[in-house]
């Protein structure tokens, strides 16, 4: 087991770099709003220069200018595009069709089968909504394009801060389907996409068991540990027999990330 | 409830008159011909008259089909509040500051959306407060589902088969039918007649009105959008009526130079509102950047009832016209936001942009503006 050590980067930067490492050169990739966009464009700036990047806003071939774009359509991502199309084109023709290789989405909550909740937080026991749909204690942002990516992308990566309240046994509301009840449950719906390949957090990386599809601890970061990850996960997290420490960011990775993250969004915590 | 579209049939009738017939009319009465030609080509209208004429309490109102930081007809929502419209059923592909404001002010009781945040600006506090209090019933879909529902409406199909949203709580939970679980009528399961696979049926949308923000329009209502069009193409065909809110008015020659880029043609447009910075504090690619400071201040204000009242007093009620609206934003800020890195996108069209004073004259002589 590792001993926690300090790195010359923040936990969020490590999360973004680990996520970016999932993107391979030449892939057709879709990036959600916010930090996941930084992770994706970091990959393009570093090791995947030929990634065919798009946002669900239908903005293709662009790179951020002036820092993290405020949205998937704003001026900071509209200054050097090769094509402006539409939602129907990006999320429909290129994602729901099964063409998209990889997506990156954020999450408010995720559960042991990689189901994502971005709709709301309900009070009561385990946050269970019950038979009647009742008002959430806290309304979140809704699905956006994440449900479409979760259904259609060949694989996708979920990126979020690692805290017990976010890592729950079963999400109150399945906004974007992971492996649902586990096993081959996705097959019931015939999803063209393969499901979540990894959950990458501020502490480490979780990957699904190939049979049960339950997420296991696959790797921890140089500054975290298995114990810290288990303590911040709200279910009985199993540890993969191959669990290992993630290599720390190289100077060139960090430099590329910080070029993309010009306004330092990932360095604020 | 007053008749929301007085005179519409009359106007539409003459839009359909062939040009040769117009020439025949002209032999009988020169003045009628001029009036007809004016009606068919000049659909400019003031913002206040557009809201008076095309909106009513309880209507199904669609805006945007834009993203939360992008090109949405926010100023149309401000005018809805100025004219005290209530009980709106809002169709917003994504939440924007417009829906955030309408929800905060209690003007909308129902909404259907794909995304309800403000992207990097966080949660939409006004909408959030309205949902958590139960004042707003919010029916959730995904972004692609909303685009497909608008496409279904555009084609007047009763439903659209979907391979997304199924198997999740987007299908199983309905805020409009909260006691049904799993919800039977929101995204019913249907069988693909060819493969036998079970998929979802998305209900098509045909909102009463779409207020659509565009970068450029000619006086007849041919529109060019810079940046992603998101779902404005589908919405413009789905809605029963379309009003454009344009940042700038261009000469007809611009439209004829770039007909491939005219994704919203005049034949489906009722009226054109000219309103620079109509998407403010959101951005309009080619025209102006997102106003970061106001995006945050507005969202902070909308988090409380008192803050919302103060916001309405300060940024919804005070202006009398376009000039005083731009004064309210601040002329220095208007100039700074116009220095956008996307400005080059506008370059091919600049030569055809009509001067402010000329557009105001065109609005004044438009029959939509003067006919009551």
Task: Explain what the structure shows.
Helix content of chain A is 20%, strand content 22%. The mean pLDDT of chain A is 93. Chain A has helices at residues 11-20, 35-46, 87-96, 146-152, 226-231, 251-260, and strands spanning 28-31, 52-55, 59-60, 83-84, 102-106, 109-111, 116-117, 120-121, 138-139, 155-160, 167-168, 196-201, 204-208, 215-220, 238-245. By secondary structure, chain B is α/β, with parallel strands linked by helices. Chain B has 17 helices and 13 strands. In chain B, helix 5 packs parallel to helix 6 (97-104), helix 6 packs across helix 7 (125-133) and helix 8 crosses helix 10. Classes of the chains: A alpha/beta (269), B alpha/beta (372). Chain A: One of its GO terms (molecular function) is CoA-transferase activity. Chain A: It comes from Aromatoleum tolulyticum.
CATH topology of chain A: Glutaconate Coenzyme A-transferase
Instruction: State the end-to-end distance of chain A.
Output: 25 Å
Estimated share of beta-strand residues of chain B: 15-25%
Largest sheet of chain A: 10 strands, mixed
Note the total helix count of chain B: 17
Reading the helices and strands of chain B in chain order gives HHHEHEHEHEHEHEHEEEEHEHEEHHHHHH
Order of strands across the main sheet of chain A: 4-3-2-1-5-10-12-13-14-15
Computed Rg of chain B: 21 Å
Give the class-level CATH name of the largest domain in chain B: Alpha Beta
Question: What is the averaged pLDDT score of chain A?
Answer: 93
GO molecular function (chain A): CoA-transferase activity
Organism (chain A): Aromatoleum tolulyticum
Keywords (chain A): Transferase
Protein name (chain A): Glutaconate CoA-transferase subunit B
């Amino acid at each position: 087991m590792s001993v926690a050590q300090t790195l010359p980067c923040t936990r969020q930067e490590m999360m973004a770099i680990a996520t970016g490492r999932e993107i391979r050169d030449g892939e057709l990739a879709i990036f959600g709003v916010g930090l996941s966009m930084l992770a994706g464009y970091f990959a393009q700036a570093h090791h995947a220069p030929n990634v065919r990047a798009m946002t669900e806003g239908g903005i293709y071939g662009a790179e951020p200018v002036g820092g993290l774009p405020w949205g998937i359509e704003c001026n900071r991502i509209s200054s050097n595009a090769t094509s402006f199309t539409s939602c129907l084109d990006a999320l429909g023709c290129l994602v729901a069709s099964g063409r998209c290789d990889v997506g990156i989405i954020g999450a408010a909550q995720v559960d042991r089968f990689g189901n994502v909740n971005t709709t709301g937080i309900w009070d009561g026991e385990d946050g269970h909504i019950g038979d009647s749909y009742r008002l959430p204690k806290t309304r979140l942002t809704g699905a956006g394009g994440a449900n479409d990516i979760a259904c259609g992308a060949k694989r996708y990566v979920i990126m979020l801060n690692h805290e017990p309240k976010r890592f729950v046994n079963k999400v109150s509301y399945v906004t974007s389907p992971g492996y649902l009840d586990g096993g081959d449950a996705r097959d019931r719906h015939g999803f063209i996409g393969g499901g979540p390949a990894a959950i990458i957090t501020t502490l480490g990386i979780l990957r699904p068991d190939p049979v049960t599809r339950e997420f296991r601890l696959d790797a921890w970061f140089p500054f975290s540990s298995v114990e810290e990850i288990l303590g911040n996960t709200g279910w009985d997290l199993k540890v993969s027999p191959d669990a290992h420490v993630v290599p720390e960011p190289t100077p060139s990775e960090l430099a590329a990330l910080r070029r993309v993250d010009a306004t330092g969004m990932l360095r604020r915590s | 409830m007053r008749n929301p579209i007085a005179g519409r049939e009359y106007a539409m009738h003459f839009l359909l008159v062939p040009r040769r017939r117009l020439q025949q009319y002209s032999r009988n009465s020169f003045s009628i011909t001029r009036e007809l030609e004016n009606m068919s080509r000049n659909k400019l209208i003031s913002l206040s008259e557009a809201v008076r004429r095309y909106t009513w309490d309880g209507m199904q109102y669609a805006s945007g089909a834009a993203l939360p930081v992008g090109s949405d007809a926010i100023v149309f929502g401000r005018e809805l509040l100025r004219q005290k419209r209530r009980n709106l059923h809002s169709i917003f592909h994504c939440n924007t500051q417009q829906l955030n404001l309408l929800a905060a002010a209690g003007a909308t009781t129902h909404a259907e959306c794909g995304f309800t945040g403000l992207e990097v600006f966080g949660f939409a506090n006004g909408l959030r407060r309205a949902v958590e209090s139960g004042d707003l019933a919010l029916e959730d879909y995904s972004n692609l589902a909303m685009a497909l529902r608008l496409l279904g409406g555009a084609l007047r199909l009763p439903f659209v088969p979907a391979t997304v949203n199924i198997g999740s709580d987007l299908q199983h939970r309905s805020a409009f039918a909260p006691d049904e679980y799993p919800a039977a009528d929101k995204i019913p399961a249907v069988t693909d007649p060819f493969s036998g696979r079970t998929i979802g049926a998305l209900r098509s949308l045909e909102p009463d009105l779409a207020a659509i923000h565009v970068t450029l329009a000619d006086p007849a209502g041919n529109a060019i959008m810079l940046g992603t069009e998101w779902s404005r193409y589908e919405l413009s065909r789905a809605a029963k009526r379309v009003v454009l809110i344009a940042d700038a008015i261009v000469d007809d020659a611009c439209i004829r130079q770039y007909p491939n880029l005219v994704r919203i043609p005049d034949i489906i447009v009722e009226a054109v509102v000219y309103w620079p910075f109509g998407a403010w504090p959101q951005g309009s690619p080619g025209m102006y950047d997102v106003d970061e400071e106001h995006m945050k201040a507005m969202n902070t204000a909308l988090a409380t009832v008192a803050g919302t009242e103060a916001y309405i007093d300060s940024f919804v009620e005070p202006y009398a016209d376009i000039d005083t609206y731009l004064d309210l934003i601040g002329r220095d800020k208007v100039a700074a936001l116009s220095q956008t890195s996307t400005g080059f996108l506008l370059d091919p069209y600049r030569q055809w942009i009509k001067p402010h004073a000329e557009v105001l004259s065109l609005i004044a002589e438009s029959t939509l503006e003067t006919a009551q």
